[in-house]
Amino acid sequence: MYETFEHTADLGLRVRAPDLQTLFADAGRGLTSMIAPNLDSIRPVREVRLRVAASRRDDLLFDWLSEILYLFESEHLLLSQFDVEIDAEGVRGAARGEPVDESRHLLEHEVKAITYHGLKVEESPEGWLAEVIVDI
Amino acid sequence: MGKEAYGGPLEKINDYLWRIPKSYKPGMRVDGLIYASEALMELIRADQAPDQVANVAFLPGIQHASLAMPDIHWGYGFCIGGVCATDPAEGGVISPGGVGYDINCGVRLVRSNLFYRDVKPHLTELVEELFRQVPTGVGRGGKYHFDHRELKRMMAEGPRRLEERGLATAGDIDHTEAGGRLDDAEPDNVSERALERGKDQCGTLGSGNHFMEVQVVDAVFDDEAARTMNLEKDMVCVMIHSGSRGLGYQVCDDALRLLRGVPEKYGISLPDRQLACAPVESPEGEHYLGAMRAAANYAWCNRQLLMWQARESFETIFGRSWQELQMNLVYDVAHNIAKFERHTIGGRERRVWVHRKGATRAFPPGHEEVPPMYRRIGQPVIIPGDMGRASWVLVGQHGSMDQTFGTACHGAGRVMSRTAAVKAAQGRRIDQELKQQGVIARARSWKGLAEEQPAAYKDVSLVVDVVHQAGLAKKVARMRPIGVIKG
Q: Is B219 exposed, middle or buried (0-12, 13-18, 19+ CB in 10 A)?
């Protein structure tokens, strides 16, 4: 489950999930929803493999979201479905979506970058929580 | 981390200056100083920006104070509106977060020989033409495509490279800060990913707060300076606000990734990871500086190509060449940049790295880096406001060298979060409201206009009053918007 939260100049993304795999999948969906709010309009016609490795969990989330953003920026690819696996080295997964088609996709924000400011990945008795602020 | 009010100390020094004492947080090396009026300070306290001013005071080698301009607001790491100078001779650092993702985001102002009465009958048509010709919005590429080799030459040379292709003139380059080129750029330090993001984005506006506006000179406050800039009342101008697009964002992102673990390596302790930094005189610091300069030069090419497209649109609508319309560049300023400059600190001249993150250089009359045609009046300082009220042209004053490392504000500064602005716009047509005020606005999405509505910003004139009274820069002219295109 993801939601946006207030930041004066930019936008915050907060994700809650029962496990880490879902946390990363929902964070990916949350990021895409900031760019194109209607995820239902994105057809899963193309699949890409993603892999990121980092020693810290928050860096993993940062790198994961940066990969998704880079695919949008370089190939105009909107990704809305994620299968995530976590292993000792990091996160890998399959992401599905399609290139932007302006007749069907309303684009709302240009996300310039993922930031480290207030970046958080935490486990609590209720599950996992992540927060990240993106530069708009 | 949500939006919370600042609860730390703020001591009033005078009517436009406030101090955060370095005793506020252990680790602060200098005080924080914020330029603001009482009224603006009420708005500034509403979020964490003052705390970010205090955090910047942790950076090794910082001189004088961690400074903030009256348009300061909550950013990530550095506040937006922050200024910090570090001395390499004292272990001073360079911090990519002190420049920002949008390296050399900045503003340029173009004048014309058209007056409001000439443009008014064609205004809607002109704004439509600009909106058709100038690429705006999320992920949108432009009509100029450059391969990696050409991009690297542009990053080394800036708009001079475009002059060879007939897309810039010598006059344009003379009227651009630093002549549109930071020396010692290292395009080879720019990653393939950054090149890939930048290849079709040069000459595109982007989204968020970037814009192109048709403006009218509404009031002149300094006749001599206005005359020197060839500005007069009722004259139509074009203001362009954009930066280094995806290329610059990626350069910053790459640098922050390379800096993981680096502050610890050099024994630097920081209160926020986004302030990641490296000593200027270190391999990591030098690598970033080479890439940052390259991205800055790319940004000047971007604004040059945006201006070129604006000139073409005016040619289409008015049926005369841009030269006949005298659409000359008044000046182009960077407001997200780090520069190695000479400043007098404690009675001694030193060279320091001045980080300006949402702050504009404002060199005074007589300064050697002010281009000759403006040396008598001081460097033009271009301050965009919101799309409903005003923008300003100022000139740098001697007070900026004494107080702020030759710096003034960069804009109005947000007062509403994006979320709050969208809420406030529910059930409204911002474009219709603007039209009633005489402003034709076109944007790719309703939300884009809602987030950027005038009420989302402080009144830029209140911000400008502070830098004027503090002697950082002097008012020359106020412009009002009549046409706006946005992403």
A: middle
B76 bridge partner residues:
B78
Query: A39 to chain B, minimum CA–CA distance in Å?
Result: 16
Give the tens place of pLDDT for each residue, A53-76. Answer: 998 999 999 999 999 999 999 999
Nearest to B273 among A63, A113, A119 (CB): A119
Task: For CA atoms A31, A37, A39, A41, give the dihedral sign.
Answer: negative
Instruction: Report ipTM (2 d.p.).
Output: 0.90
Rg (CA), chain A: 14
By CB neighbour count within 10 A (0-12 exposed, 13-18 middle, 19+ buried), where does B11 fall? exposed
Q: Tally C-beta pairs within 8 A across A and B.
A: 118
| Residue type for position A87 | D
Q: Give, as one character, the DSSP assignment of residue B296.
A: H
Q: What is the pLDDT of residues B354-396, one digit of tens each?
A: 999 999 999 999 999 999 999 999 999 999 999 999 999 999 9
Which one of A7, A35, A106 would you mutate to disrupt binding with B, by most B Cβ within 10 Å of its Cβ? A7
Q: What is the largest CA-CA distance in chain A?
A: 44
Predicted TM-score (pTM) of this structure: 0.95
Distance from CA of A97 to the nearest CA of B (A): 16
